[in-house]
Design a protein that fits this description.
about 250 residues, alpha+beta, Arc Repressor Mutant, subunit A, Chorismate lyase, 2 domains, six-stranded antiparallel sheet, 7 helices, 10 strands, about 35% strand, elongated
């Protein structure tokens, strides 16, 4: 009838508790899916060589636990629906890095079409001659330079981006609200780095000064990279808080 996990009569655990675990496991593994009718009391007794009292006690506990329901005159049915287990992440970079209540503004330093480097071709999985739209901003927090934000986006993702005020709203919100493709996932990497050359000059810090580097790859609904953001922050004390919520 089905592959059985038998009761252990030498165990100190009571038989009805073992039966409870056996049936619960079948339900959670969806061998007995939600809405299906489980074997009758007599069938369970024969299969596991246990008494009716053992089966009844186990089933009663499963009913109380929400795994089963009894329907008079029809039998016992599975009521346990396996939940999706996952997380959704919410972040707000300025508050993440500097705490709540900060006064921040974004300064646009450069924007326009840009030939992708080999690094960007690899990151965004580009083929052939595909231009990217490039945005470079400097974030000032409480009157002090805080970090640089470089963003690259496929033109097919956001036709007309050159006419947008890219400093008005966060880059992610701009794509999500106005772009042709929606963001389904963001992959973030954080590392300790150093500021060199133009980056050090724009951040107004010494050459080679420590910096916090964040990479954010934006993935579209078709699981393809659609944009990339790199943030380089001055290497002072940062507090990065990420909030996770369970998906129910």
């Amino acid at each position: 009838m089905w592959t059985e996990k038998t009761v252990d009569r030498e165990s100190l655990q009571k038989l009805y508790v073992q039966m409870f675990s056996i049936i619960k496991e079948k339900i959670e593994k969806q061998e007995w899916p939600n809405g299906s009718q489980i074997p009758t009391e007599d069938e369970l007794c024969r299969t596991y060589d246990v008494s009716k009292a053992t089966v009844r006690n186990a089933v009663s506990e499963l009913v109380r636990s929400g795994y089963l329901r009894k329907q008079q005159g029809k039998g016992t049915f599975v009521t346990y629906a396996k939940q999706d287990l996952g997380v959704t992440m919410k972040t707000k970079l300025t508050e993440d890095m500097f705490g709540e209540g900060v006064k921040a503004k974004k300064e646009l330093l450069a924007k326009g079409l840009k030939q992708p480097s080999e690094e960007m071709r690899s990151i965004l999985s580009l083929n052939g001659d595909q231009d990217l739209y490039y945005i470079l901003c400097r974030r000032v927090v409480n009157g002090e330079t805080a970090y640089l934000e470089e963003s690259y986006v496929r033109l097919s993702v956001f036709p007309g981006i050159e006419d947008e005020d890219v400093c008005r709203v966060p880059f992610y919100e701009l794509i999500q609200e106005r772009g042709a493709k929606k963001i389904s996932k963001v992959v973030q990497t954080i590392e300790v780095s150093e500021a060199h050359g133009e980056a050090a000059s724009l951040l107004r810090i010494p050459e080679g000064a420590p910096a916090l580097l964040l990479h954010r790859l934006l993935i579209g609904s078709e699981s393809n990279p659609i944009a990339y953001t790199r943030l380089l922050g001055i290497g002072k004390k940062y507090k990065i808080m990420t909030e996770f919520e369970r998906i129910k």
